Amino acid sequence: MHEMGIVSGILTASVESAARENATRINEIRIRVGELTEIVDDALHFAFEALSPGTLAEGATLVVERVPGRSRCVECGTTFNHGRFDVECPSCKNYFCELVEGRELEIESIDIDLPDGAEAGERS
Amino acid sequence: MKVDLSKPILDRNERFAAENRALFDEHGVFVLDLLASPGAGKTSTILATIAALRDRYRIAVIEGDIASDVDAQKIKAHGVPAVQINTGGACHLESDMIRRAVDALEIAEIDLLIIENVGNLVCPTDFDLGEHAKVMILSVPEGHDKPYKYPNIFARAEAVILNKYDTMPVFDFDENEFREVLRRLNATVPVFPMAATKDQGVAEWAEWLAARVESQRARTGA
Question: Is residue B60 situated within a structural domain?
């Protein structure tokens, strides 16, 4: 259950950035989580509900985008998606492959409300 | 308003990990993060490794446990510097804990630093401590199907020690199936069958580790 630590990292970074923009609240936090990490979505949401009250992110939606495992063959350069098992180049059947994606633990963006009058023309 | 962050969630952990690694490299120290379930034989493996390599290298140990200092005491009893980290309930070590522990060691007087992580096959895998290699110990009584259940740790390990190998006759452990699953997760990882408390197979593992210590020295010019 290291998701508590993960979520407190998400909250710290999101709240810092939101405060820098003088936000009144955070509506949404989007994160990217690689399929090859040991992160469980349910535990993330549980931890988020436990830790977000009392912060700018209280009531915000946590959106989790999953990034599949992706590797590049060291021999022939083919790049391919894969799961946890059998990371084998589909072209030359080689096992020497470098991981390109799949271990992400990244905050992509936040959606915030600004004080009245401050956000005209800025909403994306 | 949407604000792009594109920032690692474990930003703080990754910053400390990078600082740790830079400090280790500056002093030419090779750092091993040892991972296993509770009871797989992490401390016994460390003691066997110390016995095999202490004449060649200056070794120190960081012990991670939720509570108590029994493991650090066992290491110190063999005359090797050891620092205990108590995580106070946390299921894994983080890089700032390692930083504080390193402050309590004479880093310039160390060639090989072994970190015994908290006994857990899940949480420690996502945290970089600034180590140079993660090594996994599986003990025979745990069963050959562990890589199916905890794939990530087996996929990330740079070596796997198969400990309590002497108990093979009394457990239903299918070594061929274990090696086959492991190959599917981590095609090139070396496996070291070992019985740490009986000094069986320790020499092969110690040679692998010594080669890593030497390449770290060569790389850093220490």
Answer: yes
Structural domain including B60 reads: 19-213
Dig out the tokens for B198 from the structure. Answer: 């009986």
Helix A3-20 × helix A41-51 angle, to 10°: 50
Q: Where are the domains of chain A?
A: 3-68+102-113
CATH classification of A3-68+102-113 is 3.30.2320.50, yes or no? yes
User: Which positions ≥6 away from A95 have C-beta within 8 Å?
Assistant: A87, A88, A89, B187, B188
Q: Do B151 and A13 touch (CB under 8 A)?
A: no
Write the DSSP symbol of residue B110: -
ipTM of the predicted assembly exceeds 0.90: no
For the entire predicted model, the pTM comes to: 0.87
Does A121 reach chain B within 8 Å, measured CB to CB? no
Q: Per-residue confidence at A3, pLDDT binned at 50, 70, 90? A: confident
CA distance B144 to A43: 28
Rounded distance between C-alpha atoms, residue B61 and residue B102, angstroms: 10
Q: What is the CATH number of the domain that holds B196?
A: 3.40.50.300
A-B contacts at Cβ under 8 angstroms: 96
Closest C-alpha to B44, from B86, B75, B79: B75
**Among the partner residues B5, B92, B125, nearest to A17 by beta-carbon distance:** B5
